[in-house]
Amino acid sequence: MNFEIQRRIELSDIVQFPPPGQNVPGSLTFSPDGRSLIYLYSPDSGLVRQLYAYDLESGEQRLLIAPPASSGNEENLSLEEKLRRERQRQRELGITRYEWSPKTGQILLPLPDGLYVYEEEDSPLRPLLTNPDHPIQDPHFSPDGQWVAFVQNAELYVIPIGGGEAQQITSGARGSGKTNGLAEYIAQEEMGRSRGYWWSPDSQKLAFIEVDETHIPVYRIVHQGKDGLGDGAQEDHRYPFAGMPNARVRLGVIARDGGDVQWLDLGDNPDIYLARVKWLPNGRLTAQILNREQSQLDLLEFDLETGQKRCFVRETSDVWINLHNMLYPLKKLAEHEAGGFIWASERTGFCHLYLYDAEWQVDSLAGVNLKQSVVYFMASQETPTESHLYQVSLLGGEPHRLTTEPGMHSVVLDIKRNRFADVQHSVENPPTIVLRSLADGRLLTTIFTQPDKRLAELNLSTPQIVALQNRAGVTLFGTVYRPPAIFGDGPFPTIVSVYGGPHAQRVTNSWALTVDMRAQYLAGQGFLVFQLDNRGSARRGLAFEASIKHNMGDVEVADQVDGVRWLVEQGLADPARVGIYGWSYGGYMAAMCLARAGDAFQVAVAGAPVTHWDGYDTCYTERYMGLPQTNPDGYKASSVMHHLDKMTGKLLLVHGLIDENVHFRHTARLINGLIAAGKRYDLLLFPDERHMPRKADGRLYMEEQIADYFKKHLL
User: What is the CATH number of the domain that holds 468?
Assistant: First the structure.
């Protein structure tokens, strides 16, 4: 990338959202008639998103819906909506969600003051339900487009799309501490399931989950920064700590008009996770049941007429089961009488697709063309640092790659399976959106190119993706941000940017690496900045990920140390001036690296760190560590506090006091350990922030403090 240099990157550039080149249309869908591509976009590169349509024939973009002014302020959101946004890691405002009715072509819009329906071009939004007494949660169209279901005040409701009174169809949860139709915290945060109810294909029934958390002790978070006291200055959460009770769930089916609930048999063991629910085209219901140890997953099918159930698939693992959404029912295959379903499994050690009723590392299932018996999926054949769209016949044969440009691709297939929208980007190229043929991947038209003026204004350097071997002979991928030439050829004071946890991958051939603005800023100040995906990270197969089983903070630290030593060997890093920073699991890693590898790291900034895994939630922690009762030594060794006697460097702790994910309790316990060990530390607190700081002034203040900390101790 060779943009004209006009100015250096400033701290204010770090906190501006979205980053340069990242203001890209999102939530792409094809209209039911296939004539338009619909998406959310902010034309002024701000936070407030509007709904647009791109006419695929004329190439014209038009504004469909602009949100009301009230939706541009996060302070107007309910607590329920704020917590939903936390679970989704969502910063955008305005229109953040929409849903098509494939039958009627209407669009459902949840806004802060209620539910609205968009019916046709140039027509105003039609209010369906506004200014409710309680927040409206998780609204969805029925398959026939005639109804909308939602949850309000712990119960499930339906309302006719034409208007009228909303009808409450479930009962018994309100006021009891239970909820009907809502996903529990664990499902939202750790299982990738945000929904708690599902319409039947004929729109006559709804399956829903009853969640009972009344037996889970309350964890109270006090808003210490508020002027007032009382209920408005505190929150109570039923947080399931590792080794402690989980929520109890039941799966029921109820008629659209209400009535008696048909409760389904999920087995004799109540201590399970209800991971996924999906209706089949034949009107039967499936549920994925994961045991507490996360070593066994059953795919169950329920016949609602007879009450019978059967187990389609049982997945077992000596490591753990990684959940996915790749279950696709098939009505009939060409040249075959029977149908079946597509299912993903890691039983070989890599995620592959399987055809049931009849190898590949697969990221996601993009779609199926039953007429041609072809399945489309995202995968990484050539390198784990990229993702591409492939097609393969359901009748056999080799996969064929449809995306050719290097980098990362995210696709949406049209309804007729003729075309796909491809969001493509790399470290050298910001995201663009193009329309391609599903037959052969050829380019049909360009939908979106980058209008961001900041790309020409800022001195953005292209990071270098490198490969190195750790002490175990395993190839690891890293990213290097070199300082400008004015700082010489090195060795440089070095800062490692770390996450390091499972289910995440940071080093990819993606534009997100280039616009890591903190890394770019620090490089501009004379630091070499380095990122490394250690063992335990995602998209390298189950064995690579399972390196951390029952012993977090061990091989991850070793790999980060090996990364630093590689930099030293290349003449890039000054071994006497190495710092590390990270957030969440990355905060844990920063603190662990300082405590366990003081010979490699002299300074650490740990943001919202987990410090002892007995203080984090059940589903995430126990997947990797087992239960505290069965792995006490592993929990002890994986605690930052267990290694403080060896810590010699400088440590800055950063945390939001109302963090409901990684509670401030983690940092407080670490401080107690530091005091007991006689170790110095520095502390930066944000009284009104949760897990991810959101307020621009607070984020700027944080970046100033972090940058100054590294400059003070490493330059």
Answer: 3.40.50.1820
